[in-house]
Write a structure and sequence with these properties.
The structure is a single chain. About 50% of the residues lie in helices and about 10% in strands. It is an alpha/beta fold. The strands form two sheets. Strands 1-2-3-5-7-10 form a six-stranded mixed sheet, sandwiched between helices. It has a four-stranded mixed sheet with strand order 4-6-8-9. β1 (about 15-20) and β2 form a beta hairpin. α4 packs antiparallel against α15 (about 300-315) and α12 runs antiparallel to α13. The longest helix has 18 residues, at about 90-105. The chain starts with a helix and ends in a 30-residue tail after the last helix.
Length: about 375
């Protein structure tokens, strides 16, 4: 019994590390060989640690970071979907519920939370970091929402933060899975500060040596290290006119048609890549993604998370399609990159099929996501309203 307990303790400690003194805490994702992708155990540990730290009156600053070349590549889709495939879809529901509750906790966190996003950040990693007060990116940061490529959709609050980006840039990111670097994230509003990777250790030291840190001193320290990076001329963020023209359309079919028309006028690489990405993604995932982001425009974060949980459960349950299971096989397991989507074309995805994924599940033990009442203002760049 003792050896089993010790193994579990060591396993969890390997994946999530907490360091620091009484008023300064670092929470470190430590699964570098898996790009810090989130397992069920990691999410449980993170939830436990963040709740304990929030209740500790001596802690004044909290930093979230990842070991290795990635901040966090998202949820561990291979293992989670594998467990669903060999067991029951409700395992996926339990995973998503715990993950979304953690995202909500961090979005409403009562202490200054600084996410050091030095490397790849996708999916669940974006959910951990992009709802918080301070989002620090570097020249190594790469953000993407590639979920439609594996039969999923941008979740973990993505329908909230993508829908609040300038114009229809969020629809572009969600439907194409296009990547952004740190400079682009800062300029579109996904990040609050840009700091060179080599300076992060010095920034940590400056924060750590504050004897009585408060918001004023934290902001001042960040200002001392923050840079104003230049966006590349090739950046899609500089293509806002065409992106708004195409991605403001009402349907995915119309968006694709508009992009194809633009491609005939000017054969720019990013347009060709956007068309290719949309055509290779799961048709039902694309339609779910567009509707989810559009609904997110008029909803607060808690409403978005509740809706996203319902969609995730329906996708896990294969209510309208088995594309998640096929996407996992083709992209992440067999890696033949030739998924056989069902339905296979956008025009075969009916309104009712999409609607079924936004509807509650009629099973005795299923309930809508319930989020705790937290009388705290959300501190991020997207909104200052109570959740």
């Amino acid at each position: 019994m003792d050896s089993h307990c010790n193994f579990n303790k060591q396993f969890n400690q390997l994946q999530v590390i907490v360091e620091g003194d009484s008023f300064y805490k670092k929470v470190i994702l430590n699964r570098p060989d898996k790009l810090n992708s989130l397992s069920y155990g990691m999410i449980s540990e993170l939830s436990k640690h963040f709740r304990a730290i929030e209740m500790d009156p001596t802690v004044k600053i909290v930093i979230l970071k990842g070991n290795g070349k990635a901040f966090c590549a998202g949820g561990d889709v291979v293992s989670v979907v594998g467990s669903m495939f060999s067991g029951h879809w409700s395992f996926g529901a339990s995973f998503y519920k715990k993950q979304l509750q953690l995202d909500y906790l961090l979005a409403t966190y009562k202490k200054p939370l600084l996410s050091f996003i030095d490397g790849m950040v996708m999916g669940g990693g974006a959910g951990l970091s992009l709802h918080g007060r301070f989002k620090i990116v570097t020249e190594n940061t790469v953000f993407a929402s590639p979920e439609v490529a594996i039969g999923l959709f941008p979740d973990c609050g993505a329908s909230y933060f993508l829908s609040r980006l300038p114009g229809y840039f969020g629809e572009f990111l969600g439907l194409t899975g296009a990547r952004l670097d740190g400079a682009e994230m800062l300029n579109c509003g996904l990040a609050t500060h840009f700091v060179f990777s080599k300076d992060l250790a010095l920034l940590e030291k400056a924060l750590e040596t504050q004897t009585s840190p408060d918001m004023t001193s934290i902001n001042q320290i960040l200002s001392n290290f923050a840079q104003k990076p230049i966006i590349k001329e090739s950046s899609t963020f500089k293509r806002s006119e065409i992106i708004n023209k195409c991605f403001s359309k009402d349907t995915v079919e119309e968006i694709l048609l508009a992009l194809e028309q633009e491609a005939r006028i000017k054969s720019e690489t990013w347009i060709i890549m956007a068309i290719k990405s949309i055509k290779s993604g799961s048709p039902i995932s694309l339609k779910i993604t567009l509707r989810s982001i559009r609904e997110g425009r008029t909803q607060n974060l808690s409403e978005c998370l509740i809706r996203e949980y319902t969609i995730c459960c329906n996708i896990a349950r294969a209510t309208a399609s088995t594309d998640l299971y096929e996407g996992r096989r083709a992209i992440l397991v067999d890696k033949d990159k030739k998924p056989k989507w069902e339905p296979s074309k956008l025009e075969l995805v009916s309104f009712d099929m999409v609607q079924s994924c936004f509807s509650g599940i009629d099973e005795d033990d299923w309930k809508y996501l319930q989020l705790p009442v937290r009388n705290h203002t959300m501190h991020n760049a997207f909104s200052s309203s109570n959740l």
